[in-house]
Amino acid sequence: MTTPSRRKFMGAASGAVLGAPALLEGAKSYRYSELESRIARRDFRGISKQDLPTPVLVLDQEIFERNLRHMAGHCKATGIHLRAHVKVHRSADIGQRQVKAGAIGLSCATIAECELMSASGISGLLWTAQPVGINKTQRVAALAKKDPTFMCVADDPIVVDALNEAAAAANAKVRVVVDIDVGIGRQGTQPGREALDLAERVMKSKSLALAGLMGYSGRASHTSGWEERRRVSREEAGKLLESVSLCRASGVPVEIVTGGSTGTYNIDSDQGWLTELQAGSYALMDSRYAVIGSKSGSPTYDDFGCALTVLTRVISKKYPNKAAIDAGNKSMTQPSDVAKGWPGVRVERAGAEYGMLLWDQAEREPKLGDLVELIPSNLDMSVNTFDRMYVCQGDQVVDVFSVLGRTGPPQK
């Protein structure tokens, strides 16, 4: 059953509804070969969503740019730095726009993301997972030698020693942030004495330099209700503060204190304990964030708009209250996705290349050939299945962003 907050969000998310399908009306379209050649030379004149293969990622330029401005304005007003996380989009095109909007650098989930962002000219990168294995330690050393502003995290003395060895072999100096587990239970050294011992080990390593401490509160980011989210965030922040205070009292300088998330951005910045924020989802947003509740008390989290959708087409309609679409498991279609602009229509899985739209009562019923935009439940997973995003103003394509530098097919 659709919850009241979900119904409200579905209504709020309904934008301009895509018109009748070109498939059935014979509207002008481009041959596939011509479309690809025009995109290759960045000539987007006259190309609309109707011309695109499906399923594909579509980015609403107006909402996207508004999200960037809102976060940049908030950080400027509160005096906190933004080192935006790229794991949600994995696109150098978006990363460059985040830095242009005011971010001091970018946070990355993988060394490949770091290498991509660095190659695009972006500095101030932080890899938020520690390098384990010779392949990754050598790549970290190489990137640090190329860009002295690059940083990675560590939570284990074995990794610190291996990284120091790799950095020495490369004649590089690697900046290290000690990662502290503040409650997520996934990675990070324990707060307090264990964190201090690791920070001191980094300081004593000749080819490493201590940059600061990190604590990611993953549990807080999606906690429902702003007051409860603030309580959880403050509880977990205390574990990081304990380590920061102990380090400074022991003569260990802590320059950077980094963490936070999109869901807690206006909580983290008000507490004065972070020097920088790692929010990432704010740029694109997804349906799971949209229902966690706002500071105003609204059940809808409307601080940022859902800019990214998966554009899919109705490919079969043979049964009452049901329509098949071409975005399936391979597009990471989830029951918690939202059909934008289709109140009363819900999403279900139906196979590798099939999804299903279902409804009991709907204001409009999807027809064969209709284009439908799905707001994803998990940005990271949805983006990772595609090689590009089509940037649109309304129905018109105005740009194409590459995902992880890939130049593969327009849709999977």
Strand content: 15-25%
Please bin the fraction of helical residues: 25-40%
Q: Quick one: how many beta strands?
A: 17
| Name of the top-level CATH class of the largest domain | Alpha Beta
Average predicted confidence as pLDDT: 90
Can you tell me the overall shape? Answer: globular
For the terminal residues, how far apart are their CA atoms? Answer: 31 Å
CATH topology of the largest domain: TIM Barrel
What do you see in this structure?
This protein is α/β, with parallel strands linked by helices and 412 residues long. The chain folds into two domains: 4-61 and 302-402, Beta Barrel (Lyase, Ornithine Decarboxylase, Chain A, domain 1); 64-291, TIM Barrel, CATH 3.20.20.10. It has 13 helices and 17 strands. The protein has helices at residues 4-13, 22-25, 32-40, 61-78, 92-100, 111-119, 134-146, 157-169, 193-204, 218-221, 226-249, 265-271, 379-384, and strands spanning 56-60, 81-85, 105-108, 125-127, 151-154, 174-179, 208-215, 256-259, 276-277, 308-319, 322-325, 338-340, 345-349, 355-359, 371-375, 388-393, 396-402. The strands form two sheets. Strands 1, 10, 11, 12, 13, 14, 15, 16 and 17 form a nine-stranded mixed sheet that branches. Strand 10 and strand 11 form a beta hairpin. It is globular, with a radius of gyration of 23 Å. Mean pLDDT is 90; it is low at 1-17 and 19-27.
